[in-house]
Amino acid sequence: MLRRLVIIKRVLGDAIGHFNYDDGWALASHLALSALLALFPFLIFATSLASFLGADAFAETAVHLIFDTWPEEIAAPIAREVSSVLTIQRGDFLTIGILAAAFFASNGIEALRVGLNRAYRVLDRRSIFFLRAQSLAFVLVATIGFLVVSSLLVVLPVAIGIAQQRLPWIEPYIGTINLWRILIAAVIIVLALIAVHLWLPAGKRRFREIVPGLIFTLVFWVVGSSLFATYLSYYSTYASTYAGLASIMIALVFLYIVSAIFILGGELNASIKRYLDARAKVAQ
Predict the structure, then answer these.
(1) What is the reported pLDDT for 279?
(2) CA nearest 46: which of 120, 142, 128?
(3) Could you read off the pLDDT of 239-255 as tens digits, one per residue?
(4) Using CA of residue 194, residue 259, residue 30, residue 251, what is the dihedral sign?
(5) Annotated domain spans of the chain
(6) How confident is the model at residue 157, as a pLDDT?
(7) Residue stretches of the chain with pLDDT short of 70
(8) What is the structure's pLDDT at 89?
(9) Alpha helix positions (H), 121-206
(10) Distance, CA of 214 to CA of 72 (rounded, Å)
(11) Does the keyword Glycoprotein belong to this entry (predicted)?
C-alpha cells in the first residue's frame, strides 16, 4: 500500500510539476480562447454543408450535442447566441467565406495539438502542410459525424414510437430523446478524446497508454464543470461585472478549466509512461 502511494505521488508530482514548468496554465488559456474562436466557424461551416446536403435539422441538433454536456448555467447564454447565428439560411457552401470558416475552425485543432505535444514532451517535426491537412480532416470528419448523428436523431423518435407499439415491455428502458442526446454527446466526447490523443501529437501511442488520461479528463471535467456551475448559481458576479459580455466570459472561464484538465490528462499519460520506462530500465 505504501509503495503504491509513493508511485502515485511520484507520477502526479511529475505530471503537475511539468505542467507548471512548461507553461501549462498559459497553454490552457491559449486552448480555451482558440476553442471559443473556432466554435462559431466550425458550426457555420458544418451548417453550410448540412444545408447543401439538405439536412435542415442539423443546427438544432448540433447545438444540443455540443452544449448538452455543459452545465446549464454555462451553456444556456452562449447556446442562445449560437442558435441565432445558425438559424441564418446558408446555401453558399464551397465559397471563400465558408472555406475560410473551415480554416479558422482547424485552428482549434492546432491548439489541441500544441497542448498535447507539450504534455507528451515531444517535438513535432512533421510538415506544416500535413499538420494543417490533418486538422482540416478532423474538422470535416467531425462535421460528417454531426450530420450522421443529426439524421439519426430525426429518425430515432419514429423508430422508438414503432418499437413501443410492437414491443410495449421496452418502454421503461427507452427514456426520452433528451437522454439519448446526452448519451450520444458523451460517446462523441469519448471518441473525440481517443482520436486526438492517438493521432494529433507527434509520436505513436497505444490505446492502453492514453486510458489514464482519458479517465482523468472525463472525471475532472464533470467535477470541475459542476463546481463552476455551483459557483455561478450562488456567488457569480459576472453579470454585474461584464454586463453584455458575461456569457462570453463565463464560456471562456469554463473552457479554461476544461483545457487545463485536458492538458493535465496528457501530462498524466506521459508521466506514467516515463515511470514505466524507468522501471523497465532498472529491471534490465
Answers:
(1) 84
(2) 142
(3) 556 655 677 788 888 89
(4) positive
(5) 2-283
(6) 60
(7) 49-65, 68, 73, 77, 81-97, 150-181, 235-245
(8) 58
(9) 128-166, 171-174, 177-199
(10) 23
(11) no
- Residue given cell 482519458 in the structure block: 214
**Residues in Cβ contact with 43 at an 8 Å cutoff, skipping those fewer than 6 apart:** 59, 62, 66, 82, 85, 86
For the chain, give the longest Cα–Cα distance: 65
φ and ψ of 270, to 5 deg: -65, -40
Q: Give CA–CA dist 200/72, Å, rounded.
A: 30
Q: How many residues does the chain have?
A: 284
Residue reference for cell 472561464: 253
Classify burial at 75, counting beta carbons within 10 Å of its beta carbon; exposed 0-12, middle 13-18, buried 19 or more.
Answer: buried
d(CA 274, CA 279): 9
Q: Give CA separation, 188 vs 43, 195, 277, in Å.
A: 16, 10, 32
- Answer left, alpha or beta for residue 176, where phi above 0 means left and psi between -120 and 50 means alpha: beta
- Three cell numbers written together for 269: 499519460
What pLDDT does residue 128 have? 92
pLDDT in tens, 208-220: 999 999 999 999 9
b/e string for 83-100 if b means 16 or more Cβ within 10 A? Answer: eeebeeebeeeeeeebee
212: cell is: 489514464
